[in-house]
Amino acid sequence: MTDTKTSYATCPLCEATCGLEIVTRGREVLSIRGDEQDIASLVYLPVLLHAAKTHNFFSASTVDQMPKQVTAGLMFGTILSIPVPDLERTEFLLLLGANPLVSNGSLMTAPDMRGRLRSLRQRGGKIVVIDPVRTRTAQEADEHHFIRPGHDAHFLFAMVHTLFAENLVAPGRLVEHLDGLEQVSEMAQPFAPERVAEACGIEAETIRALARELAAAPRAAVYGRIGTCTQEFGTLASWLVDVLNVLTGNLDREGGAMFPMAAAGARNASGTPGKGRGVRFGRWKSRVRGLPEVYGELPASCLAEEIETPGEGQVRALITLAGNPALSTPNSQRLQQSLGTLEFMVSVDMYLNETTRFANVILPPPPSLARSHYDLALYQLAVHNVAHYSAPVIERETGMPDEWEIFLRLAAILGGQGAQADIRLLDDMSLATLIQREVATAGTSVEGRDPGELLAALKPRRGPERLLDFMLRSGPYGDGFGAKEGGLSLAVLEDHPHGVDLGPLQPRIPEVLRTISGKIELAPAPIVEDVARLRASLDRANGRMLLIGRRDLRSNNSWMHNLHVLAKGKDRCTLLVHPDDAARLALVNGDRACVTSQAGTVEIPVEVTDTIMPGVVSIPHGWGHALPGTQMRVAREHAGVNTNILTVEENVEPLSGNAILNGVAVTVERAEA
Ligand SMILES: Nc1nc2c(c(=O)[nH]1)N[C@H]1C(S)=C(S)[C@@H](COP(=O)(O)OP(=O)(O)OC[C@H]3O[C@@H](n4cnc5c(=O)[nH]c(N)nc54)[C@H](O)[C@@H]3O)O[C@H]1N2
Ligand SMILES: Nc1nc2c(c(=O)[nH]1)N[C@H]1C(S)=C(S)[C@@H](COP(=O)(O)OP(=O)(O)OC[C@H]3O[C@@H](n4cnc5c(=O)[nH]c(N)nc54)[C@H](O)[C@@H]3O)O[C@H]1N2
Ligand SMILES: [Mo]
What we know:
The chain is α/β, with parallel strands linked by helices. Among the domains are: 1-38 and 366-396, no CATH class; 44-55 and 284-363, Rossmann fold (3-Layer(aba) Sandwich), CATH 3.40.50.740; 85-263, 3-Layer(aba) Sandwich (Dimethylsulfoxide Reductase, domain 2), CATH 3.40.228.10; 541-670, Barwin-like endoglucanases (Beta Barrel). 31% of the residues lie in helices and 13% in strands. It is built from 23 helices and 22 strands. The strands form seven sheets. Strands 18-20-19-22-17-21 form a six-stranded mixed sheet. A four-stranded parallel sheet has the order 2-11-12-13, with no helix packed on it. It starts with 20 loop residues before the first strand and ends with a strand. One ligand MGD binds at residues 14-16, 64, 96-100, 102-104, 106, 130-133, 135, 147, 149-150, 152, 225-228, 231, 548-553, 555-557, 662-663. Residues 14-16, 64, 96-100, 102-104, 106, 130-133, 135, 147, 149-150, 152, 225-228, 231, 548-553, 555-557, 662-663 line the site of one ligand MGD.
């Protein structure tokens, strides 16, 4: 098991594991926001949140993948029970709203995405892409269909409808683990392919053919990413992706959509196998708009109003952790204005950028090469089970705290212990809490063990390494502190600097399930309720131009634009416009256009291209760097415009609180010279 077969380097630049923002109530209010991938911050975040005693916690999750996490919890029982395509063995891959050749795969962790997609096709497999843009991925696929933004749920429901209508439903061995199959069939009734074709922009016969092909493929996987999440029906689309995988028998089968088994921190691998407590949302609500919490978070779209609106609980202070909400959050002009009115703000970040320019104090983390790295969250979404730990490559400057030490120092201050508190005590406390929980949980490999004995076995480690060692050893591959010979520990990972290969994905149903019923919940109540909203949209007129986003190979959200090697070259922050629309609007390549939404207006250079669907325009996010008070010289020279001036904070997807960033109604016109 501990043979080193392949070297998997962890690149810390891709795939934000989505950090946080907090905000407290009362006068000493604060808000934390981040987007961290180090273990360090992930594992210490609860300490910080606890010390802050706040429900005002926001993260990039609600401008990203929260809808998928909602369906993971409702259908399978935990926040990260997200099936990923078994890329190494699948023969048919249906991709919606994802561009893995550029993004490198998100909620589907794998190095060398290009090589993997190529070899899929070389072994006779087929890739179909559904996207309003003929992306790089679409160009390398066998088939691509434009879809009108925001209509994935309609399209997927029509596929489900076809499977039932043509007797192609074949869940195979999953049948005995399903709840709600009949209900899905009923709900799909109104979504006949003819009924949705015009709205989707995909012909009914194409939808039927795709459904048949999916059903016929011996091993297939449906996968949706940000285009299917950050939109009006994000949770329904995310749900239908997995419904299709179930109905065609592809969920949890080799070559289908499978559940990874991560070495550390996997909630669906801890406790009693096959059953759990499920998930519950709305335990508290946002103060101003009354939006429900989801997994302890409030929608990032609510942050500005929580700062602006006077009264009991108004946010007056903010902590941001590795996040740039001033650019990444809807109606960012409003948010930026509100950040300027805070009484106090602290940012943990290495740049003086659009967000941190409002901070009273900026605390820089050490360079990433001076930090250790283990991808606690990403391995839970990996297409192949691996574990890789990298020790710091360079030494930290003396006196410079590590990022986790900054977190704990902030926690100590928030908790009233003052800046001089001994943060080792907080570190000890975090570990003790973790150990207590695991020894008290039935079914874990350390159930009933003496916490003192486990603690002693972890010596002399401290900090994140000690927490990680505990998680690995008590995890599904762990040595169980002596219980399992040859099992995993941090020492084993240190002996394998290229990583430990834990094998291809394995079928995990029913063991992986943590729903109360112990079944796959195909028709959870909140989702069933939301289908009415989708049905109502069937009769809606579709006339407006719709704005969507995109990603760029040489960019990572907002924060790689200050590196000359990555920022140089031709302008990448452009408005993609289809030639038909360009002709109608009298726009030619290089013209400047004004794009206007309910929230604001931006002026941006036009790039005419038939790779985008008529009636749709695209602007990448993370740009708009020419703001006063920042210190990012290179980024300023290639400033671009901020597309989140156009996105609307009032529009959130109701089940997840996720922002609607794709399919935003806009008007486009030539800018006055
Ligand atoms: N190089 C690079 N890599 C990155 C990032 C980066 O900025 N640069 N960001 C990282 C992050 S934070 C994330 S979350 C991931 C995202 O990973 P991906 O989701 O793979 O990234 P995108 O390239 O944004 O692909 C989204 C696609 O959805 C399409 N789309 C928009 N609206 C709709 C719609 O309504 N329906 C459908 N079907 N498609 C739609 C867009 O045209 C676009 O092609 O990438 C990560 N990797
Ligand atoms: N319109 C539109 N908006 C979007 C999206 C979209 O597709 N369209 N995508 C959304 C998505 S998927 C995401 S994930 C968000 C991203 O939103 P954010 O997370 O808010 O934005 P980033 O640009 O990733 O900001 C990363 C910040 O962390 C800092 N940083 C980088 N590394 C470290 C580190 O190691 N430690 C610390 N302390 N700081 C560090 C950077 O300097 C930067 O300030 O944007 C979202 N916004
Ligand atoms: Mo993201």
